[in-house]
């Protein structure tokens, strides 16, 4: 994320948290937000799209800009507590990701709309900017946009129960995914360059409404993450359901 966009996002978050630009969970119109933040409307619009992709805002066509529901925010806080679960939980979570994500991606390729694609592009743009940056902060920022990208895909499937399930999956996995990105060189499986390329392929298949291709890309991306996590000892090899041909396209061969 470039410095200008980061500063705008931080300004917006400060104004939101202080309540200065919020009334009954609805933000001021975009023009007024630009005046309060002291930026142009196009720059503020980019920041708003980024915050929507992160799950902070809900931009509703012809209705305005709203905070994400209190219920959703409370759910996310509760889900973060599951980090205290047993160590083998990550292996189990990765198994669930293999079961859930590819079919969800296939559905998203059919049901997505232009608003969903705009959110995905914002995530990809930030992931691309972080590809060559090293260090823990870049890895953490990359993880934020990685999670946002996958969340947008699942939400594009338009199934609220699926979205809630996915929130729980990533709440458990995100810390270990962050460590993996720090410990994995960018060009290797699971590294930031590899992840960006995987995401770009996913987006292209979803944009083209290629349901089968999107599902295959989701499987390939998960295989890369699984291989990296097994190599680092974060999950057990037995949790690779694709490799055992228990699920996925490989089982049909």
From TrEMBL:
PANTHER family in the record: TRANSCRIPTIONAL REGULATOR, GNTR FAMILY (PTHR43537), UXU OPERON TRANSCRIPTIONAL REGULATOR (PTHR43537:SF5)
Organism of provenance: Cloacibacillus evryensis
Key words of the record: DNA-binding, Transcription, Transcription regulation
Pfam short name (any one): FCD
Gene3D superfamilies: GntR ligand-binding domain-like (1.20.120.530), Winged helix-like DNA-binding domain superfamily/Winged helix DNA-binding domain (1.10.10.10)
Xref: InterPro entries: GntR_C, TF_FadR/GntR_C, Tscrpt_reg_HTH_GntR, WH-like_DNA-bd_sf, WH_DNA-bd_sf
Domain of life of the organism encoding this protein: Bacteria
One example GO MF annotation: DNA binding
UniProt-recorded name of the protein: FCD domain-containing protein
Boundaries of every HTH gntR-type domain copy: 2-70
